[in-house]
Write a structure and sequence with these properties.
The protein has 489 residues and is an alpha+beta fold. The chain has 13 helices and 18 strands. It has 2 domains: 250 residues, no CATH class; 215 residues, Aminoglycoside phosphotransferase (APH), C-terminal lobe (Aminoglycoside 3'-phosphotransferase, Chain: A, domain 2), CATH 3.90.1200.10. The strands form 4 sheets. The protein has a 7-stranded antiparallel β-sheet. The relative contact order is 0.10. The C terminus is likely disordered. Bound molecules: adenosine-5'-diphosphate and the ligand O=P(O)(O)O[C@H]1O[C@H](CO)[C@@H](O[C@H]2O[C@H](CO)[C@@H](O)[C@H](O)[C@H]2O)[C@H](O)[C@H]1O.
Length: 489
């Protein structure tokens, strides 16, 4: 019976948009049922569940460095930094954990047929049908109510905590609607007020999106959504105490237009996006300043940065041999970082037009989780602000390449100038330009790999950028100035 349940569940999960193991032989190797959020005579019965997915060794021939074969969870006994260290330098845990909130009904519910997970005999409930709770309005209301009520659900081996921070004006009567747009997690919109983002692939430790929103809200930065609260849990996993953030409730941004779609429309209509680019530059500068105050800052050597970029390039070449032709120019560009130092701090990490929403109240920046291909440990490392600046410049280039035409190159150049001027308050000197060139090249190399793996038809866009950047390396400059705002302590 348990095998049958696992089979049904695995089958349902494998088809979900958020499942990262498509095309691989996945096995369901663990199932943690957190405490009931509902009384046992209440329907639907709702519970958050965590599914462990593993892959046969031949599906994953390169386990993360430093991990013993067969190693499971690392010891994680304290919140915050200890968790990070535990997950830390050796990279990701050697399996994936997915969160599946389940809504159990006594009989099939035709309107939820698309969200069915399994039919089973549950130890507490008897014969039931389990549905993806994010698709069941009754279950969504139970989740929101638990958050508004700051519930703690304790079991001998687990605890689920709902932590509201700023929920005045929110009501559990707000109509829940699953978000239908593109995303890696699952969001539920509550009326016109709030959005609950349910994290799917879990990482042990603090979620970067929650942590960054909390810090930026505290600093009074208006360029991000307000954080209304979060859900986290602690549980025993393979004999260790672990904890993870499970979801975040944020302000629903009303009248939000996706920056990528907007830029493409504007370009297709032959209109300028320069003023919007300048606003994005100012928003990013404000966010960076607040992140400098809220999180640790450090200095790193240009040499170390060049080394990291070079290593990333070598990995990318093996995946995309088209990069070989540009190796000399790319390596020379990275090499120009060598003599100086770089200030590093908490940054967005994957800043592009798709991470921006234009609202009547101005641009809002979302999704502070960094590049999806990096481990949490890598994404926690402070980085240079040039990472985000380069990310947006690459995005303007993508927009130009996606709407080719006689005016596209000039449109991209205008966006670029307006964004840089607004961010840095003037032109860049040769040293800044050299650092920016290295970061743009590194980002384009990352994009080549991203496109090979996700959208092979788009790979010509970043390959074209690598070609252009490698031919135009600035000459005669060795020193690195690390703060493009010129606003250094
Ligand atoms: N606060 C918000 N209000 C309204 N819509 C939002 C909000 N945050 C995100 N969105 C919408 O949800 C989409 C996915 O958000 P994102 O944070 O990138 O999710 P994921 O990390 O799951 O991919 C965005 O492109 C945007 O359309
Ligand atoms: O939004 P995510 O964090 O999932 O970012 C990943 O996917 C992005 C594509 O959706 C990808 O962005 C690349 O394509 C964009 C156009 O679709 C373009 O605006 C970006 O500049 C380009 O990097 C991103 O790199 C990847 O991490």
């Amino acid at each position: 019976m348990a095998d049958d349940q696992n089979g049904q569940l695995l089958n349902a999960i494998s088809r979900a948009r958020w499942f990262a193991g498509k095309g691989r032989r996945a096995e369901l190797t663990g199932h943690t049922r957190l405490g009931w959020l509902t009384d046992l005579d209440q329907w639907p019965a709702v519970r958050l569940e965590i599914i462990e997915i593993s892959y046969p060794p031949d599906e994953d021939p390169e386990p993360a460095e430093g991990q013993e074969p067969g190693m499971r969870a690392e010891p994680v006994d304290a919140p915050g930094s200890a968790l990070r260290q535990a997950q830390g330098t050796s990279g990701a845990i050697p399996y994936e954990l997915y969160q599946v909130p389940v809504s159990y009904h006594r009989a099939p519910v035709p309107e939820l047929a698309h969200a069915e997970l399994a039919r089973l005999d549950d130890a507490d409930l008897g014969s039931v049908v389990g549905y993806d709770a994010t698709q069941d309005p009754a279950a969504c209301r139970i989740l929101l109510t638990a958050l508004l009520d700051a519930r703690r659900v304790r079991e001998p081996d687990s605890e689920v905590r709902f932590t509201p921070t700023d929920t005045e004006g929110l009501s559990a009567d707000d109509d829940p609607q699953p978000f239908r747009g593109q995303q890696s997690n699952t969001s539920i919109m509550f009326g016109e007020t709030a959005m609950l983002k349910v994290f799917r692939r879990l990482e042990l430790g603090r979620n970067l999106d929650i942590e960054t929103h909390e810090a930026l809200n505290k600093a009074g930065v208006a360029d991000v959504a307000r954080l209304y609260g979060w859900i986290d849990a602690g549980w025993r996993h393979h004999g260790h105490d672990v904890r993870a953030d499970l979801g975040m409730l944020v302000e629903k941004l009303i009248g939000a237009e996706d920056g990528w779609g907007l830029a493409l429309d504007v370009l297709a209509q032959g209109r300028s996006f320069a003023e919007e680019s300048a606003r994005l530059g100012r928003a990013l500068a404000e966010i960076h300043a607040a992140l400098r105050d809220a999180f640790p800052v450090a200095t790193t050597s240009g040499e170390r940065t060049a080394q990291t970029m070079t290593e990333r390039f070598e990995v990318a070449r093996a995946i995309a041999p088209a990069l070989d032709a540009y190796a000399d120019g790319v390596l020379a560009t990275f090499g120009r970082l060598g003599a100086g130092t770089l200030d590093v701090q908490r940054v967005h990490g994957d800043f592009h037009l798709g991470q921006t929403l234009r609202t009547p109240a101005g641009w809002k920046i979302i999704d502070f989780e960094g590049e999806p291909a990096k481990t949490l440990a890598e994404r926690l490392e402070p980085d240079s602000v040039w990472r985000d600046i380069a990310g947006m410049l690459r995005s303007f280039d993508y927009a130009g390449a996606s709407v080719p035409g006689p005016g596209s190159a000039a449109w991209v150049a205008d966006c670029r100038t307006a964004f840089l001027d607004a961010y840095a308050g003037g032109g860049l000197d040769a040293d800044d330009a050299a650092v920016l060139r290295a970061y743009e090249t590194d980002k384009a190399v990352y994009e080549v790999v991203y496109e090979v793996r996700n959208r092979p038809d788009w790979v010509h866009i970043p390959v074209g950028a690598v070609a252009a950047l490698s031919e135009q390396t600035p000459s005669g400059t060795q020193a690195v100035r690390s703060d493009p705002t010129g606003d250094k302590e």
